[in-house]
Each structure stands twice: as structure tokens, then as C-alpha cells.
């Protein structure tokens, strides 16, 4: 696969957010829910920045957990993510990848609870 100039070789730390909607109260305006999407390294052995999107998958971050100390310490907080379908091949007309929400039998969104690492 040709080098993708939009995927950097340098590790970059980003902030991922998963916030519920806040309803308006009195004069305070509400705010909509916000759930970031991220490129997740799904196959560490097959991922290499020069290889483009191989080994990566898109997920929407739905919740980030902070566990009480009695459950131990973890290097990264656990998260609940909803997966999108993997990258197949780019569309012949646009050259862009087409993805969809991944589901089980078109009824349930495919989800997972991986530890969340922003280390790259």
C-alpha cells in the first residue's frame, strides 16, 4: 500500500471524549452528547504507519470508566467502544473507504471494552 501522508510516523497524544447529553435547566442551556471516534490499532502485528490503514479499525468511544482504587490500578482507563466495519478496499470512483457500524445480525451494535491508550 502506498504511503498515506495523513498518517504520521510520530506518536501524537489526543484527547478522546465521551460525554452524555445535558438537559437545559432554568437559564442554563443544555448540550448535546458527544462521542469521539478513533482509529484503534486492532492488529499490532500487522500495523505499521507506512502501511496506511492496515491493522487499524474505527471505533466510537461511548464511555470511559474511572474505577475505584479497590479494583487496582491500570495504565489506561477502560472504555466501552462501538466498532465500525473494517477497511476493505477504496471505492473505485472516489478512492475513499466506505465503512458502516458493525452489527450482529443487524440488531445489536458490535461493542467491546478495551483499555483506552492514547500512546499510539
- Count of discrete alpha- or pi-helical segments spanning 4 or more residues: 0
Shape: globular
In N-to-C order, the SSE pattern is: EEEEEEEE
**Which range best describes the helical content: under 10%, 10-25%, 25-40%, 40-55%, 55-70% or over 70%?**
under 10%
Number of domains: 1
- Give the strand order, joined by hyphens, for the main sheet: 3-4-5-8
Largest sheet: 4 strands, antiparallel
Flag low-confidence runs: none
Oligomer: single chain
Radius of gyration over all CA atoms, rounded: 17 Å
Mean of all residue-level pLDDT scores: 79
Helix/sheet category? mainly beta
Q: What gap, in angstroms, lies between the N and C termini?
A: 21 Å
> What is the number of E strands?
8
Task: Give the helix/strand layout.
Elements: E1 18-19, E2 34-35, E3 37-41, E4 56-64, E5 79-83, E6 103-104, E7 108-109, E8 111-112
Antiparallel strand pairs: 1-2, 3-4, 4-5, 5-8, 6-7
Structure overview:
With 120 residues, the protein is mainly beta. It has one domain (18-112). Helix content is 0%, strand content 24%. The chain contains no helices and eight strands. The protein has strands at residues 18-19, 34-35, 37-41, 56-64, 79-83, 103-104, 108-109, 111-112. The strands form three sheets. It has a four-stranded antiparallel beta sheet, with no helix packed on it. Strand 6 and strand 7 form a beta hairpin. The radius of gyration is 17 Å and the shape is globular. It starts with 17 loop residues before the first strand and ends in an 8-residue tail after the last strand. The model has no long low-confidence stretch (mean pLDDT 79). Residues 101-113 have a biased composition (Basic residues). Residues 101-120 are annotated as: Disordered.
